[in-house]
Amino acid sequence: MTGPITAFPDLLSETYTSEMGRGSFHRHRSTGLEARFAVPEFADPLPRPRVCDALAKAVACHRITLLTAPSGYGKTTAVAEWTRTCGHPVAWLSLNRYDTDPAAISEGIAAALRRLAVTMARDDILDALAVIDAAEVGALHEAVGTAVDVVGEPIVLVVDDLQRSGAAANTSVLGALLEQGPAGLRLLLIGHDPHQLPVSSQILAGDATRLDSSALLFTAAEIQSAAGLAARSATEVDSMLNRTGGWAAAVRVALLASGQTGAAAGHPTRAAAPDDLLLDVIADEVLPGLPPELAAFLLDVTTVSELDGVLAAGISGRSDALALLEECRRRGLFLDRFGTDGAAQYRWHDVFASRCRKLVALRDPEHSRALHLRAAELLTTRQPLHAIDEALLGGDPRRATEILVDSWILLLAGRAEESPERVLTRIPEPYASRDDVRTITACAIDLAGRRAEAQALFTSRATRTPRPESSERTLFTDACARLFLCDDRAELIEALGVAHDNLSYARSLGAARYAAAQLLLGRAHFMLRYEMHDGIALLTSAETLGNDAGEATIARRAAGLLSFCSAWVGDHGASREILARIQSSDEYSDSWSTQVGAPELAAEGWIAYWEGDFAAARTAFTKTIDAHAVAVGISSIARQYLVLIAALDGDATERRNAYSLVRQMPDHEVRGVPWELYRVVALAKLAEADGDDDRAGRLIRGVRVDWREIPASATVAVDLIRRHVGRHAAAAMVKQLAPLPLGDHIRASLLVTSALIHRADGDYPAAHEVLERALTVATAGKIAKPFLDTDPALADLLAEHARWGTSHAAFIAALKPPTRVLNDLSDRENQILGYLRTTMTLAEIAAEVGLSINTVKTHTRTLYRKLSVGNRRDAITAVARRR
């Protein structure tokens, strides 16, 4: 579909995201923020053909058009009117008060373009944008260029309320597009400050142009046309022009008043400032012309600029609030609606609403404060930061602080579009110095990426540790803060226990906050890899409660963590179900992802690794790092497993590159995780793959630690110990790990190591008995990795086991050795090689693979020639000895 985009009617209830690489769409419940991507619809907009012509000329002749003027000049209205007849596809982004971060602005632009692609039903555009990480400005800039080229015709990107972004716009992808953008992309930027963006050079080069408030002022002819005053005198029109100064907001109000009262003529010219003028027009002309109950309702519900029927009813006390909102729209009272009647969101024009609030405050200060406090109570659950602002406007900083303390877990866990740190700066003294407020502030600073500053603030509190008799809220707040801010594992585990003991406090705050609390605790279990089944229970509940409470972000984050935790404990089936349910995401640029990363991508890599699909594991783990490389937890796990894959399945170049991945991992304990152990295991495995067995032995021998904290890495370590330290040391380590509640991947790995130890001891019956148990476990869980090591002893044991007798011959036959071992073999030869590990005859193999016996013989002879062997046993041994 091409042509002007007039609305995104479904986006208020659903969000569409591209499923990477496939172009299909996944829907999930939204939070109402999708209105920012829709071209606004205004009730009875004043026609501005002169402005539309100016916009059309500017966009046609220039790549960049800046439309700048103070509030109330009708910038957005005029541009919205122009988009409906411009003949170009239009992507729209309205910035909000939280768009002061370059990554947020970049993601908003990417999302606006994606939504345009959805509206146009263009999968090719979505594909071009599907892998964007908004934090990588260069990659996003290139992807936008690709997407625009794919469209094949000029498109317009409108960015409204640019002034909200401050200096951040220059360092976002918008700044890059200003400097050098695709010829097919027309930027139409709406804001207050004509000098906010550095475009002087583009203007001199003819690449950009500015339209200012003078282009937006109403003329007498436009007022006459808009008001239908052709039969009235020029004096009446001039009077209205003089009273309003041509200011669109005032013209609109004056026209409304004139139409209702018929008293437009005869008013003296006033020299008052526009702010006072509009206040006077509202007070003297608009409100008296309305039914008294509608006027009272309007003044009450303009307390907040954005609302729905429920919020309007709560603030006004009117059960018919929704009908009255629609009446306001019908009368053209500066109210826009987004979405359908059942889920409609309303937004007052800021200039109009702010003057109404000022009017209420002037007429009845006590009522004004009461309205703000009523709004604070109603918004506490839905929009806690807004509720804090309302409580402060209502003159109750104590209530604002209480809302903060009771809502911080929700803010930190679920509201990626809001910044808790920003509102904390508005909490006045003495409340700002309270221990709990300083604690919450420290967590917000940590989430923003300034960990050292956050830890210093946390330790500077007057009371370092709450007393045992402290309230549940105090104990829970302190414990959760420690889960964010501490690095010592023992202290983190202790804090996790305290948080569990006081979780009933969070439950008392309602479903949304309880879901957020469970997410935060589940996140702690995940990051520590501690008592993971408890973490899974918490995350499962958080996802369910989050969905029930309408907290889609909390539910989505819980599901992402749950997918990895399930895979980590070996429940690959459950992890796959979760991954299929949540699909993938391209939103890894927020502060949450800075600490957590992309757990669902890591889950995909983890499953593929343990199932022996190293190519798929490489892809998923690489995406995990690319999604958010600065995240310590998940990204470092991905790096370690890419190193292990390189050691097992990579060539010399890949192994050399793997050393840089190790250097990117922390070399000390961070957030309770002993990353130095992960590094040692990775380095020892690389040394072994490079043939430096002495170094591998020194590295692994030097570790003195309880390996039970990292059981998956312990399976690699125990095999390194068996080969390079001694089988008795390995046996002791297996004995230490065996009692743990282990997943199938860990159990199968330990059983294989035990079987090899028995074989080295000469106890062949025990070796085969234990190996059969390992195969039973692995077959049930589709775990191939423990049997794919290039150790010749393992290959011999598997070959012997087929002759010994096994119930898992098909599983053994399907094992595919590492790719680098079999580069010279064809797919069919690889398949037949697998069957050669079994006791099946060539005739039986031929029947199994659907070939003639002669064809199988031919493939077998070719296979033997490539491996330089003469029989099947030597072929298996030769493959095992290739490194």
From TrEMBL:
Keyword set, alphabetical order: DNA-binding, Transcription, Transcription regulation
Pfam families: AAA_16, GerE, WHD_MalT
Annotated HTH luxR-type domain residues: 818-883
Keyword Ribonucleoprotein part of the UniProt annotation: no
PROSITE patterns (alphabetical): HTH_LUXR_2
InterPro entries (alphabetical): AAA_16 (IPR041664), P-loop_NTPase (IPR027417), Sig_transdc_resp-reg_C-effctor (IPR016032), Tscrpt_reg_LuxR_C (IPR000792), WH-like_DNA-bd_sf (IPR036388), WHD_MalT (IPR059106)
UniProt cross-references to CDD domains, sorted A to Z: LuxR_C_like
DNA-binding in keyword set: yes
Database matches in PANTHER family: DNA-BINDING TRANSCRIPTIONAL ACTIVATOR DEVR_DOSR (PTHR44688)
Name of protein: HTH luxR-type domain-containing protein
Organism, scientific name: Gordonia defluvii
